[in-house]
Amino acid sequence: PDAITVQELANRMAERAGDVIKSLMKMGMMATITQSIDSDTAELVVAEFGHKSKRVSESDVELQLQGKEDSPEDLKPRAPVVTVMGHVDHGKTSLLDALRRSDVAAGEAGGITQHIGAYQVKVPSGARITFLDTPGHEAFTEMRARGANVTDIVVLVVAADDGIMAQTVEAIRHAKAAGCPIIVAINKCDLPDADPNRVRTELLQHEIVVEEMSGDVLSVEVSAKTQQGLDKLEEAILLQAELLEVKANPDRRAEGAVVEAKMEKGRGSVATVLVTKGTLNVGDIFVAGAEWGRVRALLDDRGQRVKSAGPSTPVEVLGLQGTPVAGDEFGVVESESQAREIAEYRQRVLREKSAVAGARGSVEQMLSAI
Ligand code: GDP
Ligand code: MG
């Protein structure tokens, strides 16, 4: 069961810790101020003080954050969310840059592109694709570990002159563990020693059978340097998205995940949020991990102010009370008091965890000093 320290319990009731200890003594319990008591005992103490106790748990929080299940007719197609993975130097960053430059909306909207951890491109047909531009396996696994499963499709970059390497295999493993379909981007096809066939053959050993080998994994030959094949890659992503039927209900309270968060001089805490369902609006009250806030402003991936952001749209959110962590879940709630309560509960859990870790750390320090 959830435990709470005597001090914390006193703080939460705005009572003196000494009085809590006295009340525990009356129940026949000797406790010190730093001692943890179980939630049943805590409830008795709370009743003794005449407070109404409210037991909050992570499952309560989840319930409050999640709205109703969407009915199938409310779901509308949304842009697929793509993460680029692959071995170091195979061209992940170059490919993300090249794809971003291929955006046809860039000319329309103008504005300087901002690095906010994710961006969206519009292809000539008008369809959109969202790319998480924090490549690397750590970002992907870290987000997943924190419960943010936002990636629909993994683009596996393999350099045609180098073939399958250690981190390629690792990326395949991560994508499979996440249940994300893979599209293979055979990069650096402009090089004279490029050997795309070798890449396709080597992939067989890792149970990736591309279409050319009569499998069902899409693969595209590209060059981030010459931009060759980028349109084909985008087509493949959109085709895969259609097969996956990526959809979301835009007409509900927004939910999403924090992609990036930092404290900025003059702007306060800023988080890039990828909306997964619903629509986020200026003025909305939200919880992001153990932080909360009210949306003061939303900025898109060009740094332009927008009033709202629908599913698969990455936006910078201003108006946070503190700085959340990448991978934290994001959700709009009904009231400020609800947002506060959830954030306070989660902060308390974090504090208790770090207190335990701290205690452990100091014992280790003590031992290593001997
Ligand atoms: P990352 O480590 O996977 O992010 O790889 P980078 O994007 O940093 O690229 C590694 C190196 O490969 C850089 O020197 C790039 O200029 C080069 N590179 C990337 N893509 C291509 C390509 O399509 N063709 C050629 N010739 N070089 C490329
Ligand atoms: Mg890179």
Automatic annotation (TrEMBL):
<feature type="domain" description="Tr-type G">
    <location>
        <begin position="77"/>
        <end position="245"/>
    </location>
</feature>
<feature type="binding site">
    <location>
        <begin position="187"/>
        <end position="190"/>
    </location>
    <ligand>
        <name>GTP</name>
    </ligand>
</feature>
<protein>
    <recommendedName>
        <fullName>Translation initiation factor IF-2</fullName>
    </recommendedName>
</protein>
<comment type="similarity">
    <text>Belongs to the TRAFAC class translation factor GTPase superfamily. Classic translation factor GTPase family. IF-2 subfamily.</text>
</comment>
<feature type="binding site">
    <location>
        <begin position="86"/>
        <end position="93"/>
    </location>
    <ligand>
        <name>GTP</name>
    </ligand>
</feature>
<comment type="function">
    <text>One of the essential components for the initiation of protein synthesis. Protects formylmethionyl-tRNA from spontaneous hydrolysis and promotes its binding to the 30S ribosomal subunits. Also involved in the hydrolysis of GTP during the formation of the 70S ribosomal complex.</text>
</comment>
<feature type="binding site">
    <location>
        <begin position="133"/>
        <end position="137"/>
    </location>
    <ligand>
        <name>GTP</name>
    </ligand>
</feature>
